[in-house]
């Protein structure tokens, strides 16, 4: 509210107070006004103007001042109280609309990995309930802090071990995002039998086999080049079978009968983040490479920001256009879709039409 508008309101109120002086009882201002003066609306100003115009301050009606003052006071108090209730109801409705509740319960597998942690951060930011399967549940607190258990649920489990996938883990799950993965070449991450075969093939097969038929969508993060693992240069990447096993996992999901979306990113950039701070994840940016290229047919070659890939997974959950589709995703310089659902839908639709 501007200073000029506030001063105008004060002048009207002072006029009202002066008209009450003839009364034996000193009046008080309507309760609604002092409580809400910081957000007086244009409609409230009109209420003051409307009723103040009905009060004559001329000497010819001075004898009737007390009666009119009481009537004026009652009218203004009723009008302002009604306006306050209406405004409070409107504000409550706006607050509810700004943070809509979600009926989804998204199971995130690989939620502590480079893409997975960004997926979880995006879901938390959008007030979407999440459930994680982690080999080490303590990592959830390190990454995402203390969260309401209704908003973020954590189960201990390992997709490489079929016996770990108890049916209780999947109760109520409506959507699934699988971001599991390991390195293409032998590294310390292969310790404890964490090889591409065990993660990208056995683990995914166990997961998909355990999912209930009621799941509305399974989003899988795979890789570009999976259909060309016997061709150069992809055959070099596939020396230890990573692309072959990812393709086997894709095919198993396709043939499962579950609605799916497969995201094949280019070479991953940005992160993984190891600061263990949800605020850092929510503030992460893809630098200048925010624009998104989406293709089909395993034709795209390039890089993909983990931030972009994570958002592509979240956006694909509910889009009908992405059901039973496979997309390659790259990041390029320029302004991107961010988390705007309409822009993502347009990108997916454009890829389908090519």
Automatic annotation (TrEMBL):
Stored Pfam families: NAD_binding_10
Signal peptide, first to last residue: 1-15
Protein name: NAD(P)-binding domain-containing protein
InterPro entries from the UniProt entry: NAD(P)-bd_dom (IPR016040), NAD(P)-bd_dom_sf (IPR036291)
UniProt cross-references to PANTHER family, sorted A to Z: FLAVIN REDUCTASE-RELATED, NAD(P)-BINDING ROSSMANN-FOLD SUPERFAMILY PROTEIN
Domain NAD(P)-binding: 110-318
Keyword line: Signal
